[in-house]
């Protein structure tokens, strides 16, 4: 069972590394989808890319997994609140935006589940 969990953890984390790298390679695309009230433009896109890569590495290498997955869930919530919902309200490509919103909600749920699993493992380790 541990091997299945390990494979799942890596499969969950790997796309975030790709998303993070895309923030460097496709900065102009991400600047185009930012809402007007997000500050610092390209710096925000690059910082987000760094955060996604760092979370991915942390999850894959099993270092600070609980912290990384909680921060990842917070980051995904920020994406939902500041990008997807304003785009839905503004009527910008509703189908694509709704799919992206639901994807991020699902990923946020997965991140929180992994955080919960590692929280339980930390408690079990301390009780031994």
Compose a concise summary of this entry.
The protein is mostly helical and about 130 residues long.
Q: Can you tell me about this structure?
A:
By secondary structure, the protein is an all-alpha fold. The chain has one domain (2-126). It is built from five helices and no strands. It has helices at residues 2-25, 27-33, 42-60, 65-89, 94-126. α1 (2-25) packs antiparallel against α3, α3 packs antiparallel against α4 and α4 runs antiparallel to α5 (94-126).
Question: How far apart are the termini?
Answer: 21 Å
Q: Which range does the strand content fall in?
A: under 5%
- Any idea what the radius of gyration is? 16 Å
Which class best fits the helix and strand makeup? mainly alpha
* Range of helix content: over 70%
Q: So how many helices? A: 5
Mean pLDDT level: 91
Secondary structure tally: strands = 0
**Major sheet details:** none
- Rough outline: elongated
Structurally, the number of domains stands at 1
Q: Which residue ranges are poorly predicted, with pLDDT under 50 across at least 5 consecutive positions?
A: none
Order of helices and strands: HHHHH
């Amino acid at each position: 069972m541990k091997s299945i969990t390990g494979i799942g953890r890596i499969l969950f984390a790997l796309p975030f590394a790709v998303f993070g790298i895309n923030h460097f390679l496709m900065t102009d695309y991400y600047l185009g989808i930012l809402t007007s009230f997000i500050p610092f433009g390209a710096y925000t896109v690059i910082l987000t890319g760094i955060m996604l890569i760092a979370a991915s590495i942390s999850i894959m290498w099993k270092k600070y997994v609980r912290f990384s997955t909680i921060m990842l869930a917070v980051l995904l919530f920020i994406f939902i609140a500041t990008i997807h919902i304003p785009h839905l309200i503004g009527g910008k490509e509703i189908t694509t935006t709704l799919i992206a919103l639901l994807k991020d909600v699902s990923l946020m749920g997965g991140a929180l589940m992994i955080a919960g699993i590692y929280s339980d493992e930390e408690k079990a380790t301390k009780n031994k």
